[in-house]
Structure formats: structure tokens, C-alpha cells
């Protein structure tokens, strides 16, 4: 008996705020192995909660050892995707200098104001960098804080790496930056000049940022005798868009739904306006470095809060809403009352107004979809878009999908389902370095909703 052929695979680490996952995909992009972990948060020097970097580092190496022991797989390449706004400061010997500060950490107002005022004021600063004023979520400002509050740490920093690139560095030993991480509301990038903003240069921060590489570049692993390639890592929102960009060439909008519902339009490059910025619009950079206009709505969170309120009021469990079908007669009746497009408007409605939980839930969904349409329209680029794809939690919600299709009669609306789009994106971007087959064209399953 000859030895069994080993299956060529790519390993993807998908590091979320809560769940850390590892996937192995075969050449057909089928998941052949997956593993999930959660770590306890630790605290930074101010007592604020933050990611446990050491647990994360050990987990990467432990997981790799586990995979390499599985003789049925031949790991050809490894890539990473993780949340944005996360800097790891590294000293000369490759060790982290500080905790990985949480992007929700309170940011000193005086420091922020001083920076904004020096560069034409908050509004212009935000427009140039396509970054709404989000405190520590503007990760470039984290470096500005270190420079001013901890100059000795700043001086000792050889390189500041965003989390996906730090994970990649653990395996390649090389330091680099990628545009998807630089482009996501970091306040580092000037979208007019397509370069780091002047403040980054003036403050000596550019020297602390590693050279920018292309998203599809790969590097040799830092282990003797290893042949697999290491990708440079991607910001998760940009990674989830990759399967769509590779599969669909007609202009589309993707509404990626979860706790936040993010509408992404890769075909709208018109500069951000003051009005858009005030309504939480921003740009991301795609894996090719092109601007992707985006708007955000906290709709998944609102749905969770309000379904619990309805369930408690009517004495049922939230499971009742899971597969509820749309009742058009009820929709018509509810539409006769005014439905607001403010996300929090349903929270102010007295539930005694509704005869039963079905009616209350339909009303909630009408409000949510109106708010969603208002948010998505900010980036829509009228007349150019031919399709809207919805992925994530709401794509499985028949009421949401039907109401959305009714709101967009001129556009084809699809529920798109794809297991682990973020991880698949990180695998696709380095496809040619590990996969001998062409990219499959049936990666995304679509369901069309007629108006």
C-alpha cells in the first residue's frame, strides 16, 4: 500500500474580539478542519480590559503544532484576519512593549483636540482621513497618545503593527503594514493624497510604521525546513468583501449584518461629505487599495435588545421569532401608522399597542429595515448599483429580506450565504500561492427576493 495523498490546505486564523478561530480549507474552499477558542481578557496598566496577547501568541503556535501533527494535511500557506484599530508595539528584539490597548479605551480629550486643531480642525481632519471622531477606534491616535504620554516607550518602539500583521510577524519574522488595516478609520491615511496624512509624518509616527506590502504578497516562514508561505494578514471587514469582489463585477452593495450592520460600496469613490461623515460614513480600503465607501448601523444590537423586550412582554422566548414568515397583510396595516427610520424609535413604542408578539415583531422589523435603508442609501450611488447582497444574521431572516427587497424595487436583492466569508477572503487573496485549481465560482450561495 502506497502512502495516502496528503490534502493540500491553507490555514486561516480568524481573530475576532470574542472568538478566535482557525480553519483549514482544501482547494475547493471546503472547511476540512476548524477549531475555536476564547481567552479571558486581561487588563492594561490603567486597569482597562484588553486582549491577552500572550495567550493569543501561544494559541497560534499550539494550533500550528496540532495541525502539523495531522499527517493527512499538507499546509501550503497560512494567512490571518482580525479586527481593526489594534496596534501591537514591538521593540528591536520582537517582543511587545505594551498591552494591546482596547479600541474602546477612553481617549484624552485635550490630546485629541490639540491634534485636530493643528490640522485644520476636527471636521477637515475627519474628512481627509475618512475617519469619524471615534477616540481610540482611530488607532493612529493610540500612537499619538503613546508619543505624548509615554515618550520612552515610543522611543523604544521599532515598529507598530496592526494585529493581523503582528500575527503574521510571529510566523515570518518580518514586519510590514497592509492597506486594509491602515484604511479602516485609523486617521492615519489621507484619502486625497493616497498617502499617510501629514500629521503622521510631522510626529515621527511614519518611521514607526512598517513598509506597506500588497495584500496578495506572501513571505517565507521563519522555521527551518518549512516550505509553507505566510500571508501578511487583513482587516476583517475588508477580508469579508473579497469573495464578492472576485465573484461579481457588476456594481453591488454588500450589507454585512451582525451586531453592526455595515453597508459596503466598492463602486462609490466620491469623496466623503460633511453630511455623510456626521452620519457615521467612512471609507475602508479594499485589498487592492481602492476606497470602499461604508456606513454603519448598530442594528443587530438593537434587534437583540428589542426582541428580548417583546419576548418578556408577551411571555414567550425569542426563539419564536427565528423562522417567522412575513405576513404582508400585517405589514400593510402597520404601514398605515407612521414608521420612523430612526434606529432607536421602536424602543419608545409602548408594547401594549400591539395585539400579539407577531404584530410587535413585524413592527420592529419595519423600523429596523427603514433605518437600514436610510443608512445604506448614504453610500448607495443612485442608478449605478444593480444588486444588493445581504450576508450574516439578517440574511436568514425572511421578514427582513422581504421588507428590504420591497424598499429597493429597482435593484436585485439577494440573501448571500457563505460559511466564514472573512476567513475565505483571507484564503482567496493568496489563492495562487497555495491552490492549484481555479477559483470556484459557486462560493457564494444566493437567494433572490422578489418585491
From TrEMBL:
CDD domains: ASKHA_NBD_FGGY_NaCK-like. Residues 10-231 form the Carbohydrate kinase FGGY N-terminal domain. The keyword Phosphoprotein does not apply. Residues 250-432 form the Carbohydrate kinase FGGY C-terminal domain. InterPro entries: ATPase_NBD, FGGY_C_2, FGGY_N. It is an enzyme of class 2 (transferase). Gene3D superfamilies: 3.30.420.40. One of its GO terms (molecular function) is kinase activity. Its EC number is 2.7.1.-. Keywords: Kinase, Transferase. Pfam families: FGGY_C_2 (PF21546), FGGY_N (PF00370). Belongs to the FGGY kinase family. This is FGGY-family carbohydrate kinase. It comes from Sphingobacterium daejeonense.
Amino acid at each position: 500500500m502506497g502512502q495516502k495523498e496528503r490534502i493540500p490546505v491553507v490555514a486561516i486564523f480568524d481573530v475576532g474580539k470574542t472568538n478566535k478561530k482557525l480553519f483549514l480549507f482544501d482547494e475547493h474552499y471546503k472547511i476540512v478542519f476548524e477549531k475555536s477558542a476564547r481567552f479571558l481578557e486581561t487588563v492594561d496598566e490603567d486597569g482597562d480590559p484588553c486582549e491577552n496577547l500572550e495567550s493569543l501568541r501561544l494559541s497560534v503556535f499550539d494550533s500550528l503544532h496540532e495541525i502539523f501533527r495531522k499527517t493527512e494535511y499538507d499546509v501550503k500557506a497560512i494567512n490571518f484576519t482580525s479586527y481593526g484599530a489594534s496596534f501591537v508595539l514591538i521593540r528591536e528584539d520582537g517582543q511587545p512593549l505594551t498591552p494591546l490597548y482596547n479600541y474602546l479605551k477612553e481617549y484624552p480629550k485635550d490630546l485629541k483636540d490639540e491634534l485636530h486643531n493643528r490640522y485644520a480642525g476636527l471636521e477637515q481632519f475627519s474628512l481627509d482621513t475618512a475617519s469619524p471622531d471615534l477616540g481610540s477606534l482611530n488607532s493612529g491616535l493610540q500612537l499619538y497618545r503613546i508619543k505624548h504620554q509615554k515618550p520612552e516607550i515610543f522611543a523604544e518602539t521599532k515598529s507598530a503593527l496592526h494585529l493581523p500583521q503582528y500575527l503574521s510577524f510571529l510566523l515570518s519574522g518580518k514586519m510590514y503594514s497592509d492597506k486594509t488595516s491602515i484604511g479602516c478609520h485609523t486617521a492615519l491615511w489621507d484619502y486625497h493624497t493616497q498617502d499617510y496624512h501629514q500629521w503622521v509624518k510631522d510626529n515621527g509616527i511614519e518611521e514607526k510604521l512598517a513598509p506597506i506590502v500588497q495584500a496578495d504578497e506572501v513571505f517565507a516562514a521563519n522555521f527551518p525546513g518549512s516550505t509553507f508561505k505566510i500571508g501578511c494578514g487583513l482587516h476583517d471587514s475588508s477580508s469579508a468583501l473579497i469573495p464578492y469582489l472576485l465573484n461579481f463585477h457588476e456594481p453591488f452593495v454588500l450589507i454585512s449584518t451582525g451586531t453592526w450592520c455595515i453597508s459596503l460600496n466598492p463602486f462609490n469613490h466620491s469623496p466623503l461629505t460633511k453630511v455623510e461623515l456626521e452620519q457615521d460614513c467612512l471609507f475602508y480600503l479594499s485589498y487592492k487599495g481602492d476606497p470602499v465607501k461604508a456606513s454603519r448601523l448598530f442594528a443587530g444590537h438593537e434587534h437583540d435588545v428589542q426582541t428580548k423586550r417583546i419576548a418578556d412582554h408577551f411571555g414567550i422566548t425569542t426563539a419564536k421569532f427565528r423562522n417567522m414568515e412575513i405576513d404582508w397583510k400585517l405589514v400593510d396595516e402597520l404601514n398605515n401608522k407612521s414608521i420612523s427610520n430612526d434606529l432607536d424609535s421602536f424602543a419608545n413604542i409602548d408594547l401594549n399597542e400591539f395585539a400579539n408578539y407577531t404584530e410587535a415583531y413585524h413592527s420592529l422589523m419595519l423600523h429596523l429595515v427603514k433605518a437600514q435603508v436610510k443608512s445604506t442609501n448614504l453610500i448607495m450611488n443612485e442608478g449605478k448599483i444593480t444588486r444588493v447582497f445581504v450576508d450574516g444574521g439578517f440574511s436568514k431572516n425572511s421578514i427582513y429580506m422581504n421588507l428590504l427587497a420591497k424598499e429597493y424595487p429597482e435593484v436585485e436583492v439577494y440573501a448571500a450565504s457563505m460559511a466564514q466569508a472573512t476567513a475565505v477572503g483571507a484564503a482567496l487573496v493568496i489563492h495562487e500561492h497555495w491552490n492549484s485549481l481555479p477559483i470556484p465560482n459557486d462560493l457564494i450561495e444566493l437567494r433572490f427576493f422578489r418585491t
